[in-house]
Amino acid sequence: MPLIWLILFTPFVGFLIAFLLGRKYNVMVSWLTVSLTGLNLIFSAILLLQTLHSKDNHLIFNWFTLNGKAYQFGFLFDSLTLMMLVLVNFIALLVEIFSMEYMENDPDLYRYFGFLSLFVFSMLGIVLTDNLFVMYGFWELVGLSSYLLIGFWYKKPEAVQASKKAFLMNRIGDVGFLIGIFAVYHTFGTTDLTVIKNSPLGLGAFYCLLLFCGTIAKSAQFPLHTWLPDAMEGPTPVSALIHAATMVVAGIYLLIRVSPMFEETTLTIIAGIGAITMILGSIYAIFQTDIKKTLAYSTVSQLGLMVVGLGSEVSTFHLLTHAFFKAGLFLCAGAIIHALHHAGEDFDAQDMRLMGGLRKKMPFTFICYLICSMALMGMPLFSGFLSKDAILNGWFPSNHGEGTNIFSVNISCSILLGIILTAFYMTRQIWMIFFGEFRNEKVDIKSIHEGSWKMKLPIGMLSMLSTGFVFSINPFSVKHSWFGDFIGRKFEENHLIGIISTSFAFIGIIAGCLTRHRIFTFQIPTFDNFYQKIFVNPTLKLSNIIQFFDQKILDYFVNLIADLQVFIANFIGWFDAKIIDGIPNGTAYSAGLIGRFTRSAQGGKVQLYVALAFLGLIGLLVFVIIS
Fold it and tell me: Tens digit of pLDDT for each residue in 332-356?
């Protein structure tokens, strides 16, 4: 199907065009890449309309043949793939439009849009492929793309460190993922997801957890969650793309694809990891003063909630709703940072302690931020209310009847605690940014203003898509959501759960309002400190010991042997030159000397011949007389 190839390679063409045109055509590159992403969104929508209800949703190609066995790969375009194609291209298009103003003065604009296109291409490859090995290739491309974008401002040491940290921590999880792929091939004889899904064979719990390592790294789950907040060193629109539709979503997408082969024990462990991640992310978010880092820890928490959904349809639903309201929040934060940067210099434009009262100067951004925040909190009438309650409903004790166990109770309590904490820190954040008095003395608040349509259009669309009416005719009922029909599952509904979750959210809002004037300066220890003491410092000490051993001992003996070899070589050279070559050279010299001496006696002078004969005669007479 040619349309599949067009969808996959259109962003890659944008990547090539960006670097072929270069810096001289910065503005042209931005418009071309935006146009190509828009075109790709149209292609994806056409594919969705053509194949949504089609049973023929698997396109297979012969890859290569080894020892008589044919290896294949293909494109899978079921409802999940179709949703992700539209979602990735849609979010990428809005981010690129927003970036045209946010990054307009950057001299390396062509490089920025080129990397964005490469990022989208890599994510689309993960979404489309039906093969775990092929997925792993695109998986690594996503890691490379994120490294390039997080470290886009490579002259900033913080950006360089953040990009390296994200890259290396993801490699840790990717090693486990790759071993898990080998285990899948060993067990099933294939890495085709469609074959694996329908196979009666099971994969051992350990190998399932190795596959899950890919999700732990990419989707920032405990204990590899610490890279995501530092990734905020990249441009803000990049943060929106990473957190909403590409890198972190890739891990959840993987979990959705491979979860059918997981056993109950594995799913229990995964749910526990998700719950821990959700609570940790929420707690860390409370103590942040950076607007982007607060949202980053919020993403960590929401990804944990998706993992608690165990890769089921409810996880997919929350992935979709989260993409809209989290991208909206990050782009709103970008609009605020952009406005503050243009209003003054020499201050931290991301520090919420230097904001306040911005709702009067940026009313459109304020409304959009409020809508997306309500969706994040899971308030009624907003999309997060539907998807969060769908996940909570699956764990709520009353739905398990006699099968209720302490674990499901703990997971339910974790989700409710996460709802309280989310509402708490988001309420405080909204107050610090938009209410009270403006607290930055270096900036005249009168100079702060909204961005152009390039900023307003993306955040306006994302805020509208964060309302509950978009997903359900009855925004209080997940049962009436169109998404259930789209994904192939009818969601169950429990009004009691909605009442309880809303009550807990209101508790968090009230607590946030009561503490709105308080700045929490206490910084709880992060796992970075733990890793530094347990892994990094011992590794550095071991490296120093090895370096000392290498330089002072190994190098000493190597240099000693080298010096000895040089001495021996010099001696052999002297012996060869003076003794071996000296004997024939001395013989030749003596022969030459004798020749020169005897040659002088053959000069052709008769007088000399007579004199020599006379001397010879005298010598002969003397000899005769003596003898």
Answer: 999 999 988 876 666 778 889 888 8
